[in-house]
Amino acid sequence: MSRTSSPYKVIGSRPLRLDGIDKVTGRALYGADVKLPGMLHGKVLRSPHAHARILSIDASAALALSGVRAVVTGDDMPSIGDKIADSGESVVNLRYVSNNLLARDRVLYYGHAVAAVAADNVHIAEDALRLIKVEYEVLPHVLDGRAAMRAGAPILLPELRTDELGKQGDAPTNVAAHIRHQRGDLAQGFAEADVIVERTFHTATVHQGYIEPQTATALWNEDDTLHIWCSTQGAFYVQEQVAELLQMPTSHIMVTPMEIGGGFGGKINVYLEPVAALLSRKTGRRPVKMTMTRADVLAGTGPTSGSYIRVKMGARHDGAFTAAEAELVYEAGAYPGSPVGSGCGSIFAAYKLENVQVDGYDVVVNRPKSAAYRAPGGTNAIFASESVVDELAEKLGLDPLALRLQNAVREGDRRVDGPVYNRIGYVETLEAARAHAHYQAPLTGKHRGRGVAAGFWFNWGGKSSVTASVNADGAVNLIEGSTDIGGSRASIAMQLAETLGIPYEDIRPQVVGTASVGYNDVTGGSRTTFGAGWAVYEVGNKLLAEMRQRAADYWDVPVEAVAVDNGVFTQNGDRLTFRELAGKLDVPVTVSASVHPQGYGPGFGLHIVDVEVDVETGKVTILRYTAVQDVGTAIHPSYVEGQLQGGAAQGVGWALNEEYVYDDEGRLLNTSLLDYRMPTTLDLPMIDTVLVEVPNPGHPYGVRGVGEVPIVPPAAALANAIYHATGARMHELPMSPARIVAKLAEVTP
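User: That's the sequence. What structure does it adopt?
Assistant: C-alpha cells below.
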C-alpha cells in the first residue's frame, strides 16, 4: 500500500540533489569536456556493408596526410581466445568483444568498426578516414532472426555451435543457444482450457536513445599504465574489459568516470576505450579523445534485440489459467548474447501457472551486437504475453484487472525459471490500479480505448563499496564508485544520513574512479540504490560504532555506557550531538564497507493508458497515462516518480515510433534523430504515477529496484488500448501509423 506515515526522518523526503547546481549551471564535467595537454582526436572508419570479407586495408594515404599521427586496425588488437566474462547484466565472450571493437577478417554489420585514426584535430581525422582504402568481398547477409535459423541461411560465425539445452551442437549455425523452462503437463493444461488464445508477435530493433554519445579519452603513460576518462555506467567494468582486451594487469589501468548523459544499459559495453588506448600508445603516448557522432551511436553501438515471439495461453470459463507456452527468438546482432534468457524468465512471471513451457533462442544476425536496454528482453516478452492476457479477458467476458488479480503470483509461488517469490507487491499494485480514478473514470468518444498491462523485472544486487569519513564540522564525506544516472548520489546519501541520524545536507557524496574506492558493479539492473544503499547502511553502523567508542574515550567511560540515538550520544546525563562529537576528535574517523547483497527482490508494475486513434491516418494520441508500481520503500519519491515517467516515455517510443530501418543491402537508413524518431513532450501527456510501497524484506530500508519495470508494460498497454479503440489487434512493434492503417484495412468489413 502507499505510505501514509513513515518511520524515517530522511528517507521518504524530497531534498534537492547535491549535484544539481553543477549540472544546471554547466559546471559539471562530461566526457566531451576532457582536455589534456597535447591531446589528439580519434575517429573510427566503419563498414559500408552488412557482411563482407576484408581482403586488405591500405592506410598509407591516410598516414601521409599532414596532422595524422596513427592508424590502428584489428591487427593491432591482441589475439584473444574464447573467454567468458561478466558484463554486469549478462555474460560475453571476450574474443567477440575484441572483434566487435575492430573487425579482423570480416565485417558482420553495417557500421562495424574497421580502423581508427588519431590526428591533431577532428577534421583531419575525418579527412583521413576517407583516405583509408579497404577492399571487401561482399557476402550474403541476413537481418531477421527466424530467417537466420533456416537451413541455407548465411553463416555469420563459422565456429559457432548451438548450445542446445546444455549440449553442444556439431554443425555451423546462427543459433547460439536454445534454452527451455518447463513445469507440469502442458498438453493436459490445454486440454482443461475452455478458451485458448495463440498469437505471434514481432518487435523491431530499437536504441536506448541516450542524449550524450559515447566518448572516451585515453592516455598510455610512459610507465605502461593507462588512464581512461569516459562516459560509462561502470568504471570497474571498463577497467576489467580493457585489461582483458589489451592483455594488461588490471592494476595498471585507472578509469575516471565523468558525468553521464544517460545510459539505460547502452553504456555498459566498451566501444572506444580500448581503441583510444591503442592510438595513445601508437602516437608516442599522447592522450587521444574519441567522441561518436549520432550516426556512429546508432550504427556502431548496441541496440536492443528485435524479436519473434509466439504465445499460447489457456483458461477456464472461471478465469483460471490452465496452461501457457511461449517461443522466443531474439536477435543478438553479430555476436551471441541477446537478452532472450531474461525474456524467458519474465514472460509469464506475473502469473501462477502449473503447466508452462518456455523456449528461447539466441540468434546471430547482421546487425550491431545487442546491448542491454532497461529491463533487457522484458518489454519484448511482455508485449506478447500481456496482449494475449487481454484477449483472454475479452473472450471470457472478464475485467482485465480482475483476470490478472485472479491469477497473480504471490509470496511463495514459483516462477517458471525456478526462483520462489519472497514478499512481493504485485497484488497490492493491481488493487491500487483497479481503485485508481483513472481506471474508474468513464472513457467516451469515437475511436477511444483504454488498455492495461502488467510489467515485471528481476532486479539485481551486485557488488558495492563505499568509504565515509567525518569532518571536524560534523559533515561526512561519502566516497562511492557507482555512476549516478538517476539521482543515486542523493538516494545513497539519504540512506547514510538516516543511518547516522544526521541531516541529509551534512552528507557530501562524490563519485570517484577505480583508484579511489573499492570495487563497484555497473549502474544497471536497478541495483544501485539497493546495493550501494546497503553498503552505506553498513558504513553508517561502523561509523556510529567508532564514534561511540570516541565518545566513551572522551568521557572516560566504558563504551557500553554510551548510548546513541538519532545522531546523539549520551551517558549518565552527558550529551553530545554528532556534530559536537566530531569537533572533539583528535584522530579522524574513516570507515569502509564492501557488500554483495542478494535480497534484491523483483518488482511489478501496472500501466493504464487511454488513447484516441485517427483511423484515417493511423496516428495514436495518448490522452491519459498512469503508471502504478511497487517500489519497495521510496527513498526519494521524486526520483522514483521520475524513473516511472522516464521508463514509460521510452516504452511509448518503442511501442509507437522507434525502429531500425534497413535497405535491401543491409544498410541502416535512419542514423539521425530526425529519422530515428523518439517521442517528445508533444507526443506525451503528463504521466501520473502511483507509488505502492511494499518494503522489500531483503534490504534494511526496504529498497526495491524501480528503474527497469516501467519500460516493460507500455507496449502491451498501448496495443490493448488501440484494440479497444479500433477493434484491431496489433502484433508488431512499432505500431506505426502505417501499420495501424494496414491492420484496420484487414479488420474493417
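The CA atoms of residues 437 and 626 lie 10 Å apart.
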